[in-house]
Amino acid sequence: MARKYPQEVAAIRGVLERGEPALKRFIEGPITQTLVDFLPVRDTQGKVTHCLVVVHEITAQRQAERALAGRLTMGELISEISATFIDLPSGEINAGIENALRTIGETLGFDRTHIGLLTPDQTRVTITHQWARAGIQTTIDDFQDF
Fold first, then answer.
1. Which one, of 65, 61, 84, 63, lies nearest residue 73 by Cα?
2. Which residues in 67-93 are b (16+ Cβ under 10 Å) and which e?
3. Do 84 and 131 belong together in one domain?
4. Which domain holds residue 50?
5. Does 139 share its domain with 67?
6. For a designed S-S bond to 131, which of 16, 94, 101, 135 qualifies (C-beta 3.0 to 4.6 A apart)?
7. Where a domain ends, among 31, 57, 83?
8. What is the number of domains present in the chain?
9. Per-residue pLDDT of the chain (146 residues; tens, 9 = 90+)
C-alpha cells in the first residue's frame, strides 16, 4: 500500500503521530474521484490509537461542476458574441459572423466552425461562413448545396 498510495500512508502516519486530522485530501483515480478525511481515534485517556479514514466519492459532483463551468462558458460566449452584433454596421455583418465563428472555435477547442443555410424545403444546406484553425484545411467548398 505504501508504494501505491504514499501520500495517504504519510497522512495516516501524521494523524497517528500528531493526533491532528488531515482533511479533504483529493485522490483522482482512473475512474473515480474521491475526497478523503483522515481522523484520529482516541482511547479514554486521549491517546491516539487508530486512524479513521472517511472516503467521499465525488465523481458525480466533479462531473456536475465541469458541466456547470461549461454552461457558464457558453453563456459568457453567447453574451460576448451577441454584444458585438448590437451596433455592427450592416456592411460588417459577414466579418462579424467570421469573428464569432473564430471565437466559438477557439473557446471550445474546435478545429473548424461553420454556419449554413437550409433551403426553404429544408432538404439541403449551403455553408455560408467558416472558420478553421491555423493548419486545418477549410471545407466550405465541399459543403455547398448538400
1. 65
2. eeeeeeeeeeeeeebeeeeeeeeeeee
3. yes
4. 6-57
5. yes
6. 101
7. 57
8. 2
9. 557 778 888 999 999 999 999 999 888 878 888 999 999 999 999 999 999 999 999 999 988 998 999 899 889 999 999 999 998 999 999 999 999 999 999 988 999 999 999 889 988 888 899 999 999 988 777 777 66
